């Protein structure tokens, strides 16, 4: 990988602070200011002439019914809305943030502008996801920038091959006193994934559970999802088998971050389902990369496993990354009135075995 993950880390920091960045890639370079962290002063500093367009993800553009302005042959590309006099900061926030979609009649008609710098635009949207902000930017072909980077730098920060084991320690837990915790870190990615090794290797493929972080379910006992009970049951099943591994992946909200997941919850309060909510925010329905989990297993010298999951994408994602899942074990728990619809959507729309 030729990219510099540190440049991407600086760009993520800049996005969180509301500083402009410049990204170069195939098709050219663009300068960007994240809409979520912009204010009037930052916008004036970025775009004194009022020329910036608004960059949106393909998912957000589809939500805003901008599909007719997109190239039908390549629908999954970002959309650039050309600058119009009424497209001020509040107007841009309304494009970026779906929370008021139902009460905000769209002003339009939006004029989509040609976007040659497709690679840089995709890199910008990936950075927004990594920064945990809404994937929408003011965009100028040339402008001020605190951080300059290349699209390849973003690929480098997401490169699971960079992950290393940094430390390990004994960690007796309830139900499994013989357990060890192993921490992993990449060169620039702040996410610290951990593995819990339970029991003693038997020479047989371990039972493995990939658990994506869910603060609300794991720590607060949220009834909206099944994460907390799945975490408990996963640990119990591994301990009962005598030997296995729980990977705790810092991929909160299926990879969109805590704040964006809570925004998705607010949209669910308006009646959208869990997958629609992600798309309205401008993200994929599931933004996780299970290559991270595959890399962790490889570092633990496990390339044949028995996987506890109902999610066919976890099996496929591990297989693509070279881990052989010799058996899938179901992990279904009783529904409650608050997560019944959520589980139904996972089964009917996301194809989970439930
Ligand atoms: N964006 C979003 N994320 C959610 C929502 N509900 C739960 N999550 C997240 O979804 C992830 C659930 O992960 P898992 O339990 O590993 O996975 P799963 O895809 O359901 O698959 P299995 O449990 O293995 O069958 C966690 O990161 C949660 O934070 C939601 O409504 N929106
Ligand atoms: Zn959850």
Strand content: 15-25%
User: Major sheet: size, sense and barrel closure?
Assistant: 7 strands, mixed
Order of helices and strands: HEEHEHEHEHEEHEEEEHHEHHHHEHEH
**N- to C-terminal distance:** 39 Å
Adjacency order of strands in the biggest sheet: 5-4-3-6-2-1-7
Function: Catalyzes the conversion of GTP to 2,5-diamino-6-ribosylamino-4(3H)-pyrimidinone 5'-phosphate (DARP), formate and pyrophosphate.
GO molecular function: GTP cyclohydrolase II activity
Domain GTP cyclohydrolase II: 168-330
Active site: 286, 288
Question: What's this model, at a glance?
Answer:
The protein is built from 14 helices and 14 strands.
Report on this model:
The protein has 354 residues and is an alpha/beta fold. The chain contains 14 helices and 14 strands. A seven-stranded mixed sheet has the order 5-4-3-6-2-1-7, sandwiched between helices. A seven-stranded mixed sheet has the order 8-9-10-12-11-13-14, with helices on both faces. The radius of gyration is 22 Å and the shape is globular. The protein starts with a helix and ends in a 6-residue tail after the last helix. Bound molecules: guanosine-5'-triphosphate and zinc ion. The site of zinc ion has 5 residues, from α7.
